[in-house]
Amino acid sequence: MYKKRVLIQCIIIPLAVGVVSALLSRGGMEAFAVLNKPPLSPPGWLFPVVWTILYILMGISSYIILTSGAAPQDIKRALTTYALQLAVNFFWSIFFFRLEWYLFSFFWLVFLWALILLMEIQFYRIAKVAAYLNLLYLVWVAFAGYLNLGIWWLN
After folding, report:
1. What is the pTM (predicted TM-score) of this model?
2. First vs last C-alpha separation in the chain
3. What are the pLDDT digits (tens) for 17-35?
4. Is 120:135 a contact under the CB 8 Å cutoff?
């Protein structure tokens, strides 16, 4: 029962980060709707679906790391990087949607991508499956970078 509760908490944390970030940046969605977007831009409804899946996978992977039985200092380092990338992720939506800082947001995404890569490396050393669960996240943020830069360029 304890492990199930910890798993649920691990999943709720990134989901809560995503929900709060979305609520704080919601006002910018009207402006986003009228922006020129680059080719391959997905429909708006797809973003919350993908982010929900990614946040759930992040939570599961953090649980795997937390309960891995690896050296405590390795777990702490990996989960610190995880928390940092989650915090950086939180602010991107606010910078992009709410403040409309498109170029700054692109560089923020590059920073986020680098943190995710570092997290991937740290997770891989502890539990490969935890790293694999975040590969889609790494790819999605790279794609988001393309979209972000395209929006800045076209607007």
Report:
1. 0.94
2. 52
3. 999 999 999 877 778 888 9
4. yes
